[in-house]
Amino acid sequence: MESFSEIFQAMVQDHGQRPRNFGRLEAFTHHAEGVNPLTGDRIEVYFQVSEADVINAARFSGKLSSLAATSASVMIPQLIGLARQEAQKLIVETLKRISGEQPVPEELPESEYTVLLEIRNFPHRVRCASLAWNTAATALASD
Question: Which terminus in the chain has less CB density within 10 A, N or C?
């Protein structure tokens, strides 16, 4: 059985080399840019939000470390299909979970998302993992 560290490293390597939902979304309604000045990571997050306030599509682009790209790559599928208000709530909860302020519910099914949440055990990497989520929050807060 693989250890958490091996699973996490494999996920970061996979998403870092082949991020999902990477690239500019041409028909976006919400957009924000984020920068981590300590690492040089730069991200742009794009959302297409319907008139019913539901996220129909999302993508990201930028120059990112493997961990920051992994976080963005895992984030996007979590947000597509949610109402903007629900997405904003999930983002806040995720940021609290990543930082260790809020526990990860035991009932969450095991997934790449729950593996990503384990970054809270590596406080020096939390800023990298949080960049995409913070940028998404900024994008979705705009009208």
Answer: N
SS3 3: coil
Give mean pLDDT in consecutive 10-residue pieces for the chain, a chain of 143 residues: 72 83 95 95 98 98 93 95 97 94 84 83 88 98 85
Provide the domain limits for residue 96. 4-141
CATH number for position 90: 3.90.1010.10
Collapsed DSSP state (helix, strand, coil) of residue 113:
helix
Confirm whether pTM is higher than 0.90: yes
> 30 and 68 in contact (C-beta within 8 Å)?
no
Helix (H) or strand (E) holding 7: helix 4-17
CA 50 to chain CA mean position, Å: 21
d(CA 106, CA 113): 13
Closest CA to 68 of 46, 38, 25: 38
Nearest-CA neighbor of 55 among 46, 43, 63?
46
